[in-house]
Amino acid sequence: MIYIFFSLGFLIPSSQFLLLTFPLMSGFFFTRLQYNSGDWNTDQRMPSNLMNSLIEYTTLTVDPLERVIPLSSPEIFKSPFCYLSGHKLVEFNKEEKENFKKYIENGGFVFADDCNHDIDGLFAKSFEEQMRQIFGEDALKKISNKHPLYHSFFDFDDGPPVTSQELNGWGDDLVHEYLKAIEINGRIAVLYSNKDYGCEWDYDFRNKRWMSRDNTRFGVNIVMYAMNFG
């Protein structure tokens, strides 16, 4: 079998080459995945905030407009980075499951964030069950806090930064000291957080000037990992 090597660092069998049609070298755009169950449309200011940080800190060419694409649509194969979030039940239909699996196994990247920041909550339980159904019982695993993700742009020597959401009395009121991931051929393909980064970054980007340190910097790491290491 012939494999094709992309500058992003992964190999794709030539027989599956046409499945991914995103413009690899034309820059970054933010895709939010819309799914039929639950509430996918959370943290509405977060994408523009993160994209502002990418423009401020990196040399990526960034499309400032968020794209909302149904998970069941073939349009997701044009996206180098997808975001999925919610508070409620996640229960993919047949087309959504097939597209998620195909997208991930052929070079795509999904950042999934639990808005409930609750490991026993409805979103966490149902999303993790979907991952088991699609990828197998043990596919979603904790990643080391020494993973290259934490040094893909800024340095986070202690692993994933704590969010103010984790100890706000909502959810399980715990600090989650790890992230989970599904890895394909040594690369993170699904990055999963119970830390509620979406809510943490859900504010007008102009308000960052009041912060001693920009809390969206870890979002920059996630995107840069997806674009350069994925």
Task: Please give a structural write-up.
The protein has one domain: Rossmann fold (3-Layer(aba) Sandwich). The protein is globular. Mean pLDDT is about 90; it is low at about 1-20 and about 20-25. With about 230 residues, it is of the alpha/beta class. The strands form 2 sheets. Strands 4-3-5-6-9-8-7 form a 7-stranded mixed β-sheet, covered by helices on one side. The protein is built from 5 helices and 9 strands, in the order βββαββαβαβββαα.
Q: Low-confidence spans: pLDDT under 50, at least 5 residues?
A: 1-19, 21-25
CATH superfamily: Domain of unknown function DUF4159
Number of strands: 9
Q: Which architecture does the CATH hierarchy give at level 2?
A: 3-Layer(aba) Sandwich
Number of DSSP helical runs? 5
User: Number of folding domains?
Assistant: 1
CATH topology: Rossmann fold
Mean pLDDT: 88
Distance between the termini: 22 Å
How big a fraction of the residues is strand?
Answer: 15-25%
- By secondary-structure content and strand pairing, the structural class works out as alpha/beta
Shape, principal axes of CA atoms: globular
Q: How would you spell out the order of helices and strands?
A: EEEHEEHEHEEEHH
Evaluate the radius of gyration: 17 Å
Helix content: 10-25%
- CATH class category: Alpha Beta
What topology, given as strand order, has the largest sheet? 4-3-5-6-9-8-7
Which sheet architecture does the biggest sheet show?
Answer: 7 strands, mixed
